[in-house]
Write a structure and sequence with these properties.
The chain contains no helices and eleven strands. With 120 residues, it is mainly beta. Strands 2, 4, 5, 6, 9, 10 and 11 form a seven-stranded mixed sheet that branches. A four-stranded antiparallel sheet has the order 1-3-8-7, with no helix packed on it. Strand 4 and strand 5 form a beta hairpin.
Length: 120
């Protein structure tokens, strides 16, 4: 019933930009928190950005100042704008949803993942 469909991944050179999108269906999008996680080879999966139902945002130190999470409730879509990309950003990125109006501590649904590769 609940689906998170991601798009926007790809190959980019260092210093470039990508914009990831995630369309949510099957639940009340505006009532829930959204996040972006990533799996970097050789490292633990990490939460890179999150946004509450009310629009408050939080970022991992590794991406702060370079990535921007946003949501468009009219389109049931969450975005991750990634600027000044580095090779260390290479990872599979996952869109995630957690129930509740505050910041999420348990992620209830995950997208399929989209590959982001930063390489020259």
């Amino acid at each position: 019933q609940v689906q998170l469909v991601e798009s926007g991944g790809g190959l980019v050179t260092p210093g470039g930009s990508l914009r990831l999108s995630c369309v949510v269906s099957g639940t009340a999008f505006n009532m829930n928190g959204m996040g972006w996680h990533r799996q970097i080879p050789g490292k633990q999966r990490e939460l890179v950005a999150s946004i509450t139902a009310g629009g408050s945002t939080d970022y991992a130190d590794s991406v702060s100042g370079r990535f921007t999470i946003s949501r468009d409730n009219a389109k049931n879509t969450v975005y991750l704008q990634m600027d000044r990309l580095k090779p260390d950003d290479t990872a599979v990125y996952y869109c995630t949803l957690g129930y509740g109006l505050g910041f999420v501590d348990r992620w209830n649904y995950w997208g399929q993942g989209t590959q982001v590769t930063v390489s020259s």
